[in-house]
Amino acid sequence: MKHTFLWLSLGLSSGIFFQKFFPVPLLWIGAVFFCLLPSLWLSRGSRSFIFLLIIMSGLLGMGIWENGKIKGRQEIENFATGELLTLEGIVKTLPEVKQHQSRSQVSFVIDVKNVKKRNERLIRRAEGNVQVFAFHTSEIPEFASTVRLRGRLTRPEPAMNPGGFEYGSYLEQRGICCVMRTYGAWGVRTIRKPSFLSYQVAIAKLRNLISRRINQLFRPEFRGIYQGILLGMRKNISADIRDDFMKTGTAHLLAISGLHVALVTGSFYFFLVILGFPQKWAALIGLAGVILFTEVAGAGVPVLRAGGMASLFLMSLLFERAHFFWSGLFAAYFFLLTAAPQNLFNVSFQLSFVSVLALILLFPRKFREWEWRWSETFFRSAAVLLGTFPIGLYYFYTFSPISLVANVVAIPLFHAALLSGLGAILFGGFPWIGNFWVIAADGCLWLVLEVIRRLAALKWGYFYHSPPAMTEMAAYYVLLGGAIVCSKFRFRFSKWFRGFFWTGWAACCFLMLSQGIPAQFQAVFFNAGKNEISYIRFPKSEHWLFNAGRSRPSDQVRWIVLPAVKKFGVNQLSAVLFSDTGSRHVSGAESLAKNLAIERWIFPIGGKIEQEKFFSGYNVPVEFCFPGKIIFEREEGDIRCLDTFEGKAIYQIRYRRWNFIILPSTEPVVFERLRRHSEALKSLDVLVLPAVYRSRLTRTYAELERFLDSADPAVVIMPQTDPAIADMLAFRDILFFDTETHGAITFSEDTRSSLRSDALPRGPDFEFLTVAGYRSGPVAFLR
Amino acid sequence: MKLLIKYQHTLLFLFLFGLGIIVFSRLFGYLPPQNFGPNKDFVSIGKVR
Question: How far, in Å, are A199, A269, A629 from residue A285 at the CA level?
């Protein structure tokens, strides 16, 4: 029987998939499994064996998925209330240190053994894995040491904005339930050091050693990259570099991918052969090398895949067995899934296997030839792009045609940098030779970064696109698979089928990429802490952003605006309007200009702005708005500057009969100014208030109350809730939503996606705006 | 190696059987899962200081 693991993996993954979406009671699965066992035994040697094998491995997959769910439940979750706790446990990962100016942060995972609450005298046993962030700690714990932590334990924050990063599910995939944050010197204390004799401790020491060596040898901006590609520690790669690689479709180079493992192993093996080692000895030493490298590289999913495949390849040389490529690939697949079934829904797992499959299936010829040609590399990266672009669109909302060129240039250069970096680490201590390696590594890496930076700056190189639907993804892969099968095997009418599949596939590609942004009006008020950022879409692809957010301490454009805007498929903003010129609204402009095409900045007149930056830095024209200026006008609606004062602007957005007003602050003068525009207030639907600061509280309440007596909005939106304002609004029957509890609040005409039809009044001419919170779902509608 | 090929079906059977025993016995509670479920009673193992 050929390709044993192919069948096993097929069964296993379909079982996992089935059990996730259509759960079957456990007893049934077990019963069927054990009933089928005798027939599997009896069918040995017959043709039905394979079918039974597939079915049984499917049942096993269902069982393994259930088992994974049980493992995922952890006792420690019960303590994740945010109060002060003391935890004791064993450090499970190598602590990573991130230094930013005077701030330092150490992150690692611990396996908790017991817990003590602050006001209790009991020590309680509770088990589970916890991700720890220790800020300004005085000691960095060693791997495998027992530590005592004092801090606050919380559940990971859910995503609050569209396209936001689901940290919770990311941690869940790694078997972690909660996050612990400790502050200050007393946050982390080591209470027991690990034993010297442990294999894992030795590996961790080696990794630590290499990481320190990298810090000694390379320039600061390259350190993070080498730590990322050799050790799997990606904390210190600068965000700009990561962005550039992402845009050019070469992000796989920055993570340790299978390619790196294959390259390191391959060159090690050939080096040994060239040195005159007999093939078997070379294979044996190579095998040891692979295992060591996999361990040192942090044993992530792609590394394990490639490491497994490489070691099977070397073992086949060792035992003089013809090497079955497929067996190697699917053996790795099978064991990775058995160990952790949730891997099947993990991006790097999917990308890793799909890209290898695409590489082999779509580009089968000349696989054994060692001759290297530009065209071949080009077609290979095209094959990978075709195989993986729906996954890329689904998770990262980016499609980069430039990756064809970027990969051809970057892969060889990057690998030269990787190998010379490895050489530098090994021989860096020797005079002359060491210098040579370090200079070579520096030069190669500098060249790659420069090339990637230039390619990423090309505007046509990449574009953002809304993610495809599940059905589209399924259709894409089924059609592509069908086309490949029909091209590989000849049977009756196979030509016709082939034609059908390829045409269908092309149509599917076209459908996926041609789908534009929906034409409906949409207004999104993001959850951005105390800050207010909003996005307005008018029909016919007019996109507007109000405020750019701050860049410190965390870059709000990167974490909040960009993911959402990418998910909507927006590549160009008609304008960014600022409600004032404070740095909390303006400082994000830099990363906005880097990642999106922006037609103009619009500032309220009278504000102070950093002249040179805005007038020359970004190549985006600056405009000023004054009271009464109409910024944009269409028959469906308009955006206008209602009033300005002291460099702040009140904006009004009208769409059909709906009327939004965005306030820059809650100073008394704002309400004073507003009251002059009685016409605009007549049919006010949505009032967007900024966060209320404590110092101005009493005046604000009084002014707001007076204002509400004259205007009567249907909905009020605020970044954070304020009990007094909430009461005031409830008393007047005004709906009140804050983005802190509801997540980003969206007003949209698009009713299909956001609201179930039975909750809505129906009728042919019934028009309404749906109000939906990203966390809480649809909450209201405006007639 | 030849034996391995001759008895491959038997080996596969044994492999699946073993894996099945491990997975399902854990599921039905004969072997403890790696972590306990939530809200099991907590064990006090002493007082602090």
Answer: 19, 8, 75
